[in-house]
Amino acid sequence: MSDAATAPNTVSDPARTPSAGEVARRYANARAAMAEHGVDALLVSGNEYSGFEGAVRYLSGFRIVHRYAYVLLPAQGEPTTIFPSEARWVGDHADGWIGEPVFAEHPGAWIRDHLRSQKVKRLAVYGLDYIMAVRDYRALAQGPFELVDFDVAFDLSRAVKSDEELALVRESMAINVAGFWAVHEAYEPGRTQAELMAAAEAVFARLGTGRQTMDMVLWGRSGSATPEFRIPDQQTPIAAEDLLLYSLEVAGPGGHWVEFSRPLTRGAAGTDTLRMLEAYEEYYAAARASMRAGASAHDVHRAVSAPFGARGYPLGHVTGHSIGMTMIEHPKVGEGVDVELREGMIFSMHPHAIAGGGTACLYMQDTWCVGAQAGEPLASVPLAIFDGHEPRPTLDHITGGT
């Protein structure tokens, strides 16, 4: 059996509770953003959709198992967690560090009435774009206060990761890479896409990801994957010439998401695939050089997308995005995004190169840390097309010695 299959469980504390100093840092950063925007309170939303639960855990420590939850952080005073009453027995409500939770038949109505009693005039809301339950938004919209969209502001307040967070990001990355090598070990023509994915999921579950995985596959014949992300197929045997790209997106026990992928085929890669691989090699060097403190997200996008554009391959997905306890955070890496990068920011980078007519694509994900002088890729797996015969690394190569 490979090292990936026999790696010991690295989880010593499944909750990964942050220190008191780390919690204070998070609240201070959020409140600084609140003061900058002139709001009286911040309402943070989270739900069970993979990757959208993290803001609640970031501010409270609670891990959403089902349904949704809120954290209400006033400009001064103690925060409150609010749950729909039907979630009383869903999740461990002693999991976090905030005191007695509120269970409300209608959370939006409870929050509205509470804020009215506190004479709140401007309420910042994180989750208006994708996360908040509609019934709760409708109740809040009837309140005597202004709603301020705080998605970007809150994400920017938590974009620079502390040393505590960076350790958890690296742990998540080690788990993700172990999952890749599990897929690599299971890879054999004649098996199904689902069988390969199951090998990674077994590693992820054992190493503490819980429900925090969102895994898909890009697939195609004759050494060329088509650009659509799919649920792994359970019935069709994999052919030797199929190209498989498993998009592995997971959060480890500490709740920090990372993303990673590399292509697999036993046959010859298609012509476009090989040209895209050349572009990826140039992208990788450009990412390392450009993902430094002081550069803008626009600068990084221009640098890393140039090799694909020069070969006539448009990018069909966002080039990259900040990533943390929420899977997709601001800022994104894209045209016109002038946010300045700071040391300690974490980004998922994944140029989605597509040939004309969608006949081929290449999509390799890496998670990067912004450095003072250069970017650091957090996985040490070669940027290459794998055939399943490559030697497996030792455990220390997978986990960094943990």
Structure description:
By secondary structure, the chain is α+β, with helices and mostly antiparallel strands. 33% of the residues lie in helices and 19% in strands. The protein is built from eleven helices and 17 strands. It has helices at residues 3-6, 20-37, 54-60, 107-117, 134-141, 151-157, 163-186, 193-206, 271-290, 297-310, 395-399; strands at 41-47, 68-74, 80-84, 102-104, 122-126, 146-149, 213-220, 243-251, 257-260, 263-264, 320-322, 329-333, 346-349, 352-354, 361-363, 366-369, 376-377. The strands form four sheets. Strands 4-3-2-1-5-6 form a six-stranded mixed β-sheet, sandwiched between helices. A five-stranded antiparallel β-sheet has the order 12-11-13-16-17. Strands 7, 8, 9 and 10 form a four-stranded antiparallel β-sheet that branches. Strand 2 and strand 3 (80-84) form a beta hairpin. The model is unreliable at 1-12 and 397-402 (pLDDT under 50).
Structural class: alpha+beta
Low-confidence stretches: 1-12, 397-402
Q: What is the helix content?
A: 25-40%
Discrete helix count: 11
DSSP strand count = 17
Compute the CA-based radius of gyration: 22 Å
CATH topology of the largest domain: Creatine Amidinohydrolase
> Strand arrangement, largest sheet?
4-3-2-1-5-6
Overall geometry comes to globular
Main pleated-sheet profile: 6 strands, mixed
Based on the coordinates given, report the CATH architecture of the largest domain.
Alpha-Beta Complex
What would CATH call the homologous superfamily of the largest domain? Creatinase/methionine aminopeptidase superfamily
Succession of helices and strands: HHEHEEEHEHEHHHEEEEHHEEEEEEEH
**CATH domain class of the largest domain:** Alpha Beta
Percentage of β-strand residues: 15-25%
Overall pLDDT level: 93
